[in-house]
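A reminder from the course coordinator: this example appears on the midterm review sheet, so study it carefully.

Given structure:
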């Protein structure tokens, strides 16, 4: 049974946050505790940033006691997403089709990435899915750091997944298309969400964009420009020049963000969605910038509000409500990932490396393998023990029968005669079984032929003729020809089926058969050749004299392992 508690560690580019959530059987979610810490923003290389973030994992482990599963949130800037519409296929084939599309659309060798997919929507014609991928070395390093801190990852999910799940849980009654913006330090997750359908995109715009604009306007080091931005956020007074530089930097950031939102909306509509967003919710550390709501409302033309990830979440008394009010903008994704592990219909994308998933699956199945091994040993040992006991009993009986061997000879002769009769009956039964198997093979073979005709469509078989093998007399006394005679005999012993049929060219009913029909009939012959009943094809011929119809005939060599 899954634990009712869940811990999520959200690794942002400028902060690390952890939340401990629990959910009771009635679906009531509670925030037990949380923790947040700022990180050094000077590290832009992902592995160095991750190494620095992992230094805080020990603090997280010491703060959150107890044995519970741990999930990790990966920034959207480190995750590649592809939204695809794929022609509808049977569910059992969908996994292979999505894997093929992943290899085609991920611009890295598939062995170098960890990827997963999530079904968004489907109809009779096609289905839409999102494929997310991240570098294997990154997620493997994250898994290693978590394991070393005794927080072995249960899942590694992109931040936009947590944002979607948090919104669905806290705003269940919302209808129409909503725009969600998670503004971080280095990037922003843009998510369009309408019921179960969604589209996300990560853009390289965030709080640091404002800092860079201030830095360029005032010719200051990055840290000094960052201090100016933080002073504005804190409400501290600033010289007029610095305040003007901040205002211009923020306006430039909002203009760029508006362009990216419009671009994302255009892509969203290209996927077949017609609804424009009717509202916007913002979250993330970048939303602490002053006058951000008004600036976005002016540019988007819709209502903009702060997203509350705790609207439907009960907060434990151990949490400081005053501090939580300031920090909750940094917790939305982590809360959403934890909620997603509790709800079966939530959006889930697990970027945990496949090698680790396989290892865990094998570990879970180890008891079954052990039990199966014990059963196999018992199955071998018990007959041996029984055989030994029986042998001892028979030896004793033999010693007792030695004195009675003479009067029992007649009985022994009678038994031998009965055994001979039994062997004859077995031979008859064996022949009857072969006949029954041959009949069964005919039924399976005809069903197989029919299914292959159905796959090609507009094709039928007019005639099937069985050519049974003919036994040829050969002179085996000639030692030079004996090998050749044996080969000829083996070839002539095979059953052959002569098939004649026609293929209808629906697209060209009044003209000669098209190349498409030639391709279809070739595909049909290749399909027959791949049948488990067929060893090969011979004597293929075609006749396209009748407009719109391609006649064909060929010979199937029946596989001797599946006799007809």
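Designed residues:
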């Amino acid at each position: 049974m899954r634990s009712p508690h869940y811990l999520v560690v959200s690794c942002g580019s400028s902060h690390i946050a952890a939340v401990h959530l629990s959910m009771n059987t009635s679906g009531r979610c509670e925030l037990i505790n949380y923790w947040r810490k700022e990180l050094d923003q000077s590290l832009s290389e992902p592995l160095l940033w991750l190494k620095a973030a992992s230094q805080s994992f020990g603090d997280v482990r010491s703060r959150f006691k107890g044995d519970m599963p741990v999930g990790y949130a990966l920034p959207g800037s480190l995750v590649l997403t592809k939204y695809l519409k794929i022609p509808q296929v049977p569910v059992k084939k969908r996994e292979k089709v999505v894997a093929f599309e992943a290899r085609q659309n991920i611009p890295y060798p598939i062995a170098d990435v960890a990827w997963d997919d999530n079904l968004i929507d489907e109809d009779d014609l096609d289905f839409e899915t999102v494929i997310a991928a991240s570098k294997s070395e990154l997620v493997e390093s994250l898994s290693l750091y978590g394991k070393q801190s005794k927080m072995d990852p249960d899942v590694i999910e992109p931040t936009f997944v947590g944002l979607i799940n948090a919104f669905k849980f806290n705003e269940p009654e919302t209808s129409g298309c909503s725009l969600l913006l998670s503004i971080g330090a280095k990037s922003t997750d843009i998510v369009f969400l309408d019921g179960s359908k969604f589209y996300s995109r990560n853009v390289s715009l965030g709080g640091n964009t404002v800092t860079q604009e201030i830095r360029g306007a005032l010719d200051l080091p990055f840290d000094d420009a960052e201090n100016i931005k933080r002073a504005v956020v804190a409400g501290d007074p600033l010289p007029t020049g610095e305040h003007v530089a901040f205002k211009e930097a923020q306006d430039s950031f909002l203009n760029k963000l508006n362009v990216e939102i419009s671009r994302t909306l255009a892509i969203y509509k290209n996927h077949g969605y017609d609804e424009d967003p009717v509202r916007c919710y913002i979250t993330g550390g970048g939303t602490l910038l002053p006058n951000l709501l008004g600036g976005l409302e002016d540019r988007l033309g819709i209502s903009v509000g702060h997203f509350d990830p705790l609207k439907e979440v009960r907060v434990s008394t151990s949490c400081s409500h005053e501090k939580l009010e300031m920090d909750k903008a940094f917790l939305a994704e982590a809360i959403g990932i934890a909620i997603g592990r509790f709800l079966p219909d939530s959006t889930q994308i697990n970027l945990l490396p496949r090698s680790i998933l396989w290892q865990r699956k094998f570990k879970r199945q180890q008891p079954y393998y052990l039990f199966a091994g014990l059963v196999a040993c018992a199955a071998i040992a018990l007959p041996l023990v029984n055989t030994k006991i029986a042998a001892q009993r028979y030896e004793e009986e033999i010693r007792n029968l030695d004195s009675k061997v003479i009067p029992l000879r007649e009985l022994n002769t009678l038994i031998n005669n009965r055994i001979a009769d039994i062997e004859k009956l077995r031979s008859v039964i064996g022949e009857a079984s072969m006949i029954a198997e041959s009949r069964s093979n005919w039924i399976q073979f005809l069903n197989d032929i029919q299914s292959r005709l159905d796959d090609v469509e507009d094709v039928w078989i007019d005639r099937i003729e069985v050519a049974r093998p003919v036994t040829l007399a050969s002179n085996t006394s000639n030692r030079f020809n004996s090998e050749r005679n044996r080969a000829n005999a083996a070839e002539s012993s095979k059953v052959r089926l002569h098939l004649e049929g026609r293929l209808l060219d629906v697209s060209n009913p009044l003209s000669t058969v098209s190349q498409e029909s030639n391709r279809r009939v070739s595909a049909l012959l290749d399909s027959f050749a791949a049948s488990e009943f067929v060893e090969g094809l011979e004597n293929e011929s075609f006749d396209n004299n009748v407009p719109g119809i391609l006649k064909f005939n060929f010979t199937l060599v029946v596989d001797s392992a599946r006799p007809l």
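The longest strand covers residues 29-38. Residues 447-558 form one domain.
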